[in-house]
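User: Fold this, then the next.

Assistant: Folding the first:
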Amino acid sequence: MRITISGPPGSGKTTVCTMLSDRLGIECVISGSIFREMAKEQGLSLSEFGSLCEVDFRYDRLLDERMLDIARGKQDVILEGRLTAHMLHRSGIPAFKIFLGASVDVRARRIAGREGIDEQDAKRSIIEREACEARRYEACYGIDLADKSVYDLVIDTSHLTAEQVCDIIVSNLEANG
């Protein structure tokens, strides 16, 4: 079964994706890792690369095409990424599409703890990154990240552990065949 996991920075996408992959015994592909590799290849910070992507859509398109190719080639895979659900939906590729969200304060606390930075700096970075991504995805694809209509399951992870989120997902997968 194809599964997509989307959501904003700090919502728990990568943690849940990895945990779900272990639990279900299927591969997971993390788009953020690919994006970070692309930034590094260009010799840019994540923020600088995001700004470049805002004016040169080829990097987003390369990443998104790579994710689509993986989805086309594999029946059993978990694809983690901000646009993955939208891209598979638009391409008519069947998948169970999940959105994970959390308040910006919770996400900032998670990112600050993970990266060892100040919580307010993390919050500013999240807000800046989300604004950049919203502009890019609207300009590049006409996608409104606030549109949750493509998702089969939306979970607020603010007060849940990754294990609890994984349990909710597995229960929904079982209920939906």
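Now the next one, as you asked:
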Amino acid sequence: MDEKDRKIIEILEEDARTPFTEIAKMLNVSEATVRKRIARLERGGVIRRYTIEVDPVKLGYTTVTILGLDVEPEHFLDAARKLAEMSEVRWVATSTGDHMIMAEIWTRDGNELARLISQRIGRIKGVKKICPAIILEKIK
């Protein structure tokens, strides 16, 4: 991977819909070169997928929460998988930080979040501690 590949990735991270012709102009190369480089980056697993960023508030989700979850070690992976199955959960990651499992959750309001935590997340086998942090403003 060279500097042109890194620049292509940077452009696509900013806007995955940037046309190949526009990327080619930015890099002063042919469109075919851009197309081949992107195909190679996809085949090599560098570019895994293309996605969109959605504003949760515009979809009616006014409470966005980063959740830290601690579980008994023998239930660690099962708990992470159970959490990932919930439609309100946008992503789940295992962690070596303050909590064993981290997740982002979108709910319509605080009451819905409270119900989700008490009635579903809190009942996952092995859960010891739940630490929600409601996001006030996303800066980046």
